[in-house]
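Thread: "does anyone have the structure for this chain?"

Original post by V.I.:
We have the sequence but no experimental structure in hand. Need at least a predicted one for the grant figures.
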Amino acid sequence: MARTPACTQMIIFRHKPGINIKDPGSKDGKTWFGVVSWLKSSPAVKRLYWGLHLENKNTVYLHIVREGLYQHYDFLASPDYAELKQRLQDMMQGDLIVRHADLIEYTQPCESIGRGAPFTGTAIYKVTDKAWDYAWNLWSTIVPRVKGCKGVAGGYIVEPVDGHQRCFIALVGWETTQAHHAYHETRHWKNRAAILTEGQKGFSEYGHIVFESEAHKPRL
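Reply from O.Q.:
Generated one for you, tokens below.
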């Protein structure tokens, strides 16, 4: 049964090549973990987790859960957001991308959002409609039974993505990337893959995020 949605601010950026933010003993790692601790110290932050994109090297995904969308907007309008950018400026290349979504955990337990899944398969489905709602709700009952799946989460993104409205981000946990890829070669997948073509006009940002589990030290 799905939990109450977690109103999540998703901050995405690319760090400069050659640095390791996952090593708390390095200069950049100390800076990064200082940023994480500072953000977590805010009373408005209910939960925070982060990870690196496996295929899109140097891309960081920082997810911050607050009570509601207005609290996320308050943060963006506050001096704290300017301070965040200032703290990151020496390690970051390009600008921050900020998105918001009510992320629903469609499975219990759900390890795909920083709760233990070694890898989280993700994609953003564009220009979805009511048919997608039914398709995803159906899919969220199918994929959890697949060997290696570690939970299903997802939600609608408030902002347009690449100019497209009503985009949906999917976050499916996997024990290994091999398990995910192997599933796409099975008859089970081929007989059901059409479900994910309903009610949407393509997808982007497909890949895997290695979220750091809140219960363990960073995986270097």
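V.I.: this helps a lot. DSSP finds six helices and eight strands in the chain.
O.Q.: and The mean pLDDT is 94.
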